[in-house]
Every structure is written in C-alpha cells, then in structure tokens.
Amino acid sequence: MAKPNYAFEKRQREQQKKQKKAEKAQRKAEGVASGEGAETAMDAGEPSGTAVSALPPATPAP
C-alpha cells in the first residue's frame, strides 16, 4: 500500500485557497469599480427601523 503524500495534499489546499482569495479580490475590485460596495451590503438587510418597531412595548416587572 502506498503511503499518503501529505506535502502534495497541503500544496493543493494552499493553491485552492490562493485561487479562491484571488477570485474574491477580483470580485471586490469589480464591485468597487462599478460603484457598488458597502451600499449594496447594507441594502440587502432589513430596513433599520422595521425590526425594532415590530416588537411590543416592554412591560416593567412587578
């Protein structure tokens, strides 16, 4: 039985991480260049006042 080549497996994982990081940086750069960015991330969530106003008023403990 052949023994596992851990160095090769580690190198493959590192290359995948590096490629994924490069793709993410490229997407981020494209988003900034096209005028997108933090605005789209904030718009994706709920409006700021919706969650708080939907809760009933707190009642004090007796």
Architecture overview:
It is built from three helices and no strands. By secondary structure, it is mostly helical. The longest helix is centred in the first third of the chain and has 28 residues, at 6-33.
- Termini separation (Å)? 73 Å
Overall morphology = flat
Fraction in beta strands? under 5%
Average pLDDT works out at: 78
- Secondary-structure element order, N to C: HHH
Cα-atom Rg, whole angstroms?
Answer: 24 Å
Q: With helices defined by DSSP (H or I, 4 residues minimum), what is the helix count?
A: 3
Helix content: 55-70%
Could you give the count of β-strands?
Answer: 0
Report the structural category.
mainly alpha
Largest sheet: none
Low-pLDDT runs: none
Topology of helices and strands:
Elements: H1 6-33, H2 38-44, H3 50-53
List descriptors:
mainly alpha, 62 residues, 63% helix
Question: Summarize this, please?
Answer:
The protein is mostly helical and 62 residues long. The protein has three helices and no strands. The protein is flat.
